[in-house]
Structure formats: structure tokens, C-alpha cells
Amino acid sequence: MSGVDITLFWIGFWLYLVSFILFAVHAAAGSRRAGVAASVLFAAGLAMHTAGLAARWWITAHPPFSTMYEYAVTMSWVIALSFVFFLAKFRRVAAGVIVSPVLIIVLVIASLLPKEASKQLMPALQSYWFYIHVSIAAVSEGAFLMAAGAGALYLMRRGGDRLPSRELLEEIISRSIRFGYPLFLVGALFAGAIWASSAWGRFWSWDPKETGALVIWLYYTLVLHQDIRGAWTGRRLAIASIVGLGIILFSFVGNLFLGGLHAYI
Description:
Four Helix Bundle (Hemerythrin (Met), subunit A); single chain; mainly alpha
């Protein structure tokens, strides 16, 4: 069964890519058929993505969180699932023209990472705190990436086009950040610190990954504060959400070059 998971992920990737093209046709030309086809293909891509994660779990006998590749694939799955819920609730198919590229970028990054599936976890990863830490962090960062997608749509929107209204997009940005922020605090920082203490004997070591998580939390603390007090609305909030995407991607990719205690994930 080895390699089945990667094949399923690749099928999902190509379905997402074709759906992006059709989302773009729908947004540009207003083709209803293109919108329906894009939504169906995106859902099929999510089904393949989900099957790939299940296969990976079966192959390795542990949740797919133990490597950077698995984390990226899991985080992209959260984005895809969130978008399907968005489509079901708001029926704004044209939003796929931005969400799909974010998803594809994360999957492309994942494709460049080592993909070896290992059933034997190193001792540091053999803790339920590790799974709590990584799973909640993936959900929270998926929410932040959804906010960034909505922010890009906000900046792209022009009067009379087929994209969701700016009011709706601003609400999605705000809600996504407010949803992701406490999860990131609990999952990435608190659960991560408890796991670090269990694995390495100390709660904090200024590892590059830990420092990156702290920067992300501080940044979204600022954004959330400004959002709640109404100082950052509209265009400012949209730009802030996109900057947050850049910080998250830099923290993720930087782990490949900076090493540290998290170098294996």
C-alpha cells in the first residue's frame, strides 16, 4: 500500500488545479456551468485529499502530523474543508479563484519536502501532547490562511463583479482570525510548551520554530486588537491578513534552513 497516499494527494492536487481554472472562468465570464464544474471538481479533490490522509494514517499507524510534509498536507486539507463549508453557507463560487491558489501553493511546498512514511516515531514525538499541539496548530493556521484568501478577494473586488461583497469578505477575515487566534494560543504555544517540556525537559528553548510561533502569535494579537477596537477595518484588515500569510509561510519554510529542535518536522 506504500505510495497510495501520495498518489491520492497528487490526484487531489490536479483536481484542485483544474477547479481553479474553472473558478477563474466563472469569475471572469460568469459561466454558471464553469462554476458548477469547479465546485464539483474541488469537492472531488477534497475527497481524494481526505482519502490520502486516511491512507497515510493507515500506512504509518499514527496521525499524519509527524513531518513537515504531513503537516503541510493536513493544513491544506483544513483550508479545503473550510472552503467547502464556505461554499455551502454563502454560495459564492467565485471565491474559489483565491482560495484555490492558496491551497495549491501549500501543496506545492509539501511536494518539495521529504515524503517518506515511517511507522516508528522518534521518542520526542511519542506523546499525545504532540498530536494535540500539531492538530490544533494546523486548524488555527488554516483559519489564518482562509482570512488571507478573503483579504486578497477584498483587495481584488471591483463594483459590479461576481465576487462576494466587501462586507461579507471583511466579516470572513474577522471571524477567521477570531476563530484561529485562541486555537493558535492553546495549540501552538501552550500545548507546544507542554510537549516540549515532556520531550526535551524545558518549556521554551528559543528554537527557530518556537520563535516563529511567538512572532505569529504577537502579530495576530496586534491584528485582533486593532480589529476589535475598530481601528483596522476594510482594506487595512485585508492587508493585515495577507501579511499574516507571509509570516506563516516564512516561519514554515524557514524551518527547513534554520534547523533547531524542530528540524525533523
